[in-house]
Amino acid sequence: xxxxxxxxxxxxxxxxxxxxxxxxxxxxxxxxxxxxxxxxxxxxx
Amino acid sequence: xxxxxxxxxxxxxxxxxxxxxxxxxxxxxxxxxxxxxxxxxxxxxxxxxxxxxxxxxxxxxxxxxxxxxxxxxxxxxxxxxxxxxxxxxxxxxxxxxxxxxxxxxxxxxxxxxxxxxxxxxxxxxxxxxxxxxxxxxxxxxxxxxxxxxxxxxxxxxxxxxxxxxxxxxxxxxxxxxxxxxxxxxxxxxxxxxxxxxxxxxxxxxxxxxxxxx
Lengths: 45, 213
Known about the structure:
The structure holds 2 protein chains of 2 kinds.
Chain A: E1 7-10, E2 13-16, H1 17-35
Chain B: H1 17-28, H2 31-34, H3 49-71, H4 73-78, H5 80-109, H6 118-140, H7 145-161, H8 172-201
Helix pairs in contact in B: 3-5, 3-8, 5-6, 6-8
């Protein structure tokens, strides 16, 4: 926590690994929320 | 004997703004809309949980912020319990923004502004911007080298925008006052309006596929 974060650098993309992992995690959570079955929901109601 | 009249719905025997406002609220926001016990089938998705988690995070932010404001900077920097509440405040803000953005994505891809819901979308955008400002003044209110560095860096940006004269990031009292009073009140009030707007019109229907009957 007391040192600068490492950076991912590819072409024009420059982003710290903590921010990169957070964005990937958010996209993963969003996709999971779309696909995961919701408890109590019955099909065709 | 004359039949009893319902003062909430029947015509004006007397007229005043209280009665007019009560009739308007009952007409626009009946209790079954304000506190619904059923939702349409399409609300049965985890995507609709993102907004609720955002509100839950806001509750934790405000609660931990009240404790921090009461005990002050020495306490949150130097005591173990102060560190704990400082961390609760920080991490609940992280959750607030993560789930606010996920809620934004969900509403964007569902085109949540359809069917007269544009004001709901616009108030959501304003909440996002005011929340960013609240978080920024929070970073400036930490009372450590980090906040001093952020203030020194930000002063050039605010001065170049021409707002430095009345929004002085180097003025701790101004930034702290905005962070603990005006901006949280604004966010909470706007979130209340946002929820009432959703209760007023309900959740937007899913987009029909092309060619659907």
